[in-house]
Specification:
The chain has 302 residues and is of the alpha+beta class. The protein is 38% helix and 22% strand.
Length: 302
């Protein structure tokens, strides 16, 4: 385990940290819960209020709840081909880090072997894997709206916070001839998100140009060509190279022109190997995408 000096300073150093990490899960959980109980008893009500007022992980969202719910309902209406599911606020420890290059330092970890959900698509991958293990021939399409929490530094701009609302889509299933399943899922995600923008205009939202930036590795260039061919009649497609290891060769982004003239990267999606790794079945394809609903309400509404 590699750590920075400040993480163990004053607490016994690396040896103490490793000793705790080596404890059986139930023992470590009991130890941490006991520690939290002592620290909580030592706090005064004024301490709690002070944290509520200053801690960027807590506090109210920057949007009106009624507006947010109406926007989410519009997006879910556009995603009628997907089963709408409600996810819990917690996920198994390493839900993100076990399948992708994500540091656990960027995720809020609990004391009970879980983590606060930081990306709904990773949790949807778990549910897709669970269902496909039972029936690998039945494709899964899921949609959700969830408040997530991320611990990394956030831009100091209105609407950005450690906790925010995310609309997410996930599709998983067995690959078909000539990557037909992957191409179909990719196209469906993009079209669903674009339909979501159309739905939101009926709530008074205003969106300018919203081209699709389609990125692919050399190995996936031919697949990207087929995706672009199906999308180009309905939306502008801009091609580009992909060198990000987070994705399995294909990625798309939707950058929307906001009423103030700025260009906002509001949606992102791609192909991932998460379900294939979770199930140890390389033939299973997983496509996921997400849209920041909180930013939509703040930047594109009336």
């Amino acid at each position: 385990m590699t750590t920075r000096d400040w993480t163990t300073a004053g607490a016994g150093g690396e040896a103490a940290l490793q000793a705790l990490a080596d404890l059986p899960g139930s023992v470590l959980t009991s130890f941490l819960l006991g520690l939290a109980e002592r620290r909580a008893r030592a706090r005064e009500p004024a301490d709690v209020l002070r944290q509520w007022e200053s801690d960027t992980f807590t506090g109210l969202a920057a949007v009106d709840l009624r507006r947010l719910l109406r926007a989410e309902l519009r997006l879910l209406t556009a995603a009628s081909a997907f089963e709408a599911v409600e996810l819990g606020p917690l996920a198994p420890l390493a839900t993100c880090g076990s399948v992708g290059p994500v540091s656990q330092n960027n995720i809020v970890t609990t004391m009970r072997g879980t983590e606060v959900v930081s990306d709904s698509t990773n949790v949807l991958a778990l549910e897709c894997a669970r269902r496909l293990r039972r029936d690998p021939d039945r494709p899964v399409r899921l949609a959700t709206c969830q408040r997530v929490v991320r611990a990394q530094e956030v831009p100091r701009r209105p609407g950005y916070a450690h906790h925010f609302k995310l609309f997410a889509l996930a599709t998983a299933g067995r690959e078909t001839r000539d990557h037909g399943f992957l191409v179909g899922a990719f196209v469906e995600h993009v079209r669903t998100l674009l339909a979501g923008f159309d739905e939101l205009t009926q709530e008074g939202y205003t969106f300018g140009r919203r081209p699709i930036r389609l990125l692919a590795t050399d190995a996936r260039a031919a697949v990207a060509d087929r995706i672009a061919e199906q999308l180009s009649p309905v939306v502008e497609v801009v091609r580009g190279p992909l060198d990000h290891p987070y994705y399995a060769g294909l990625r798309f982004t939707i950058e929307v022109l906001a009423p103030d003239g700025s260009v906002v990267p509001i949606a992102d999606g791609g192909a991932f190997d998460w379900v294939a790794r979770l199930t140890a079945n390389r033939r299973l394809v997983f496509v996921a995408s997400g849209l920041g609903t909180q930013l939509v309400v703040l930047l594109f509404g009336r």
